[in-house]
Amino acid sequence: MVACISISAIPSDCSNLLLAGMGVLVAAAVAYIAYRQHSLAKEKFKLDMFEKRFSVYKATQRFLTVIFQSTRVDVDKLFEFRRDTQDATFLFGQEIPAYLERLDKQALDLMAIADRCRDLPVGEERTRLCNEETQLLQALIGELPNLKNVFASYLRFNKWK
Q1: pLDDT, tens digit, for every residue of 150-161?
Q2: Domain tally for the chain?
Q3: Which of 5, 74, 102, 140 gives the lowest tally of CB atoms within 10 Å of its CB?
């Protein structure tokens, strides 16, 4: 059988010491649980940031891939790219939003040049615009292999920004 000891049977000095010790143990347990919850919340935040940043990376990759495949900029794909990357300002340092704005501007320039070329007769102006269009297209397509390097510092698990 289990013997129960009543607190009243323990001398008052010992019972006060026992209660104080139990209080310390409870406080230590609460502190440990709070620390673990804080650590878990911190890791969850990192994972959430990674997922949001990775979706911006994937949206940029999809946009550049479509340009590579079709050799032109589709206005619907441009708006999709803008929609999917609009939160970059809040997720990255200044360099990524600036990079995305540069890609957006190049895509708009490419669309504008393609529109102007369409109506021009064969001649010097059309040739100049076509060369400009080719340069912009090559610049945009050239970003595709470089994309991992641009986003790498924000998508590594071992070092978080």
Answers
A1: 999 998 866 655
A2: 1
A3: 5
